[in-house]
Amino acid sequence: MPDGVKRNQNGSIGEARTKALLMDRFWILERSVDIHGADFIIQRKLHSHNLLSETPTRFGIVQSKCSQNYKTQHLLHKRYVLNNNEEPHLEFFLIVNIGIEDEQHMGLLSATAICNGFDVDEKGFYKKNLQKV
């Protein structure tokens, strides 16, 4: 299978699995474009608050990745994970989907875990071989 087709297929599979997990726990807010590392924007299911409250609930940002196996190395831009003070965004999470069919695994990483466990390359991307996560 050509790399571009495999990448698009894995992206679709990963996002579908991630959305299924998130829908049970959060409200998922839709937008028409996928930019700034936000595959999903989530909000806690709090019925006592709304978007127009004086102190509305905070949103979370979820990036979804998918790979056939643990040998895949994923890249994640540093600006998605860190704020302007080079501190982890507490609202940012990475969900990694690994495997196919009966051999599926899913991992959840916070921005803090990414900062502490991943290397940054010269182009400003966090990278890690999933075998080491």
Model description:
A hairpin with a 6-residue loop joins β5 and β6 (105-110). The strands form 2 sheets. The protein has a 5-stranded mixed β-sheet with strand order 1-2-3-5-6. A 3-stranded antiparallel β-sheet has the order 4-8-7. The protein has helices at 3-23, 78-81, 111-117; strands spanning 26-29, 40-44, 59-67, 73-77, 92-98, 105-110, 119-120, 125-129. By secondary structure, it is of the alpha+beta class. The chain has 3 helices and 8 strands, in the order αββββαββαββ.
Percent of residues in helices: 10-25%
User: Which stretches of 5+ consecutive residues score pLDDT under 50?
Assistant: none
Rg measurement, Å? 16 Å
H/E topology pattern: HEEEEHEEHEE
Determine the mean pLDDT: 84
Structural class: alpha+beta
Number of helices: 3
Terminal residue distance: 27 Å
Shape: globular
Layout of strands and helices, then pairs:
Blueprint (H helix, E strand, L loop, with lengths): L2 H21 L2 E4 L10 E5 L14 E9 L5 E5 H4 L10 E7 L6 E6 H7 L1 E2 L4 E5 L4
Parallel strand pairs: 3-5
Antiparallel strand pairs: 1-2, 2-3, 4-8, 5-6, 7-8
Can you tag this structure with a few keywords?
single chain, 133 residues, alpha+beta, three-stranded antiparallel β-sheet, 3 helices, 8 strands, 24% helix, globular
